[in-house]
């Protein structure tokens, strides 16, 4: 049975993808900071769960130890930064440093910890990106900069690890609590549900294309 480790798995896209993979027969290790929602999801999916912050090296070590036979790492956990989302001229630098830690350093740390298992299984890494990494949206400069950094980390990682597939995916807008915090509940409510994106990601994993960046439209 194939095994996946999913971060930010208690809600939104992480939870939707966990459900899709479980239905496809995958064994799951789930993590998120919110214990109650995480353990509820794990119970429903017959999955293992370890609550914690992926920016905590000790938590990352526990996750890697719990997944010695890993086929798929999904770096989905992400922070939005301050809300209302400030322009770069007013962006609090301490908040930006914290966001870089969560959105850039933490995913790379988990990649480093799980690479031995992924190499052994010729596995795959799926890093969740954003169109804010490549587009100039007012107010999204801090978040977008972290996702641009994650894109480049993914790009170089793909060149350095030819036996591991690396995909960085812009899922587009989804009706999630994160989007609602950024743009308001009304606009977020008009976006597609994360389940539709999860189905596309499941097809991506199953088809195992070459490493690269994918948008929601390209996934079909």
From TrEMBL:
<comment type="similarity">
    <text>Belongs to the short-chain dehydrogenases/reductases (SDR) family.</text>
</comment>
<dbReference type="InterPro" id="IPR002347">
    <property type="entry name" value="SDR_fam"/>
</dbReference>
<dbReference type="InterPro" id="IPR020904">
    <property type="entry name" value="Sc_DH/Rdtase_CS"/>
</dbReference>
<protein>
    <submittedName>
        <fullName>Short-chain dehydrogenase</fullName>
    </submittedName>
</protein>
<keyword id="KW-0560">Oxidoreductase</keyword>
<dbReference type="Pfam" id="PF00106">
    <property type="entry name" value="adh_short"/>
</dbReference>
<dbReference type="InterPro" id="IPR036291">
    <property type="entry name" value="NAD(P)-bd_dom_sf"/>
</dbReference>
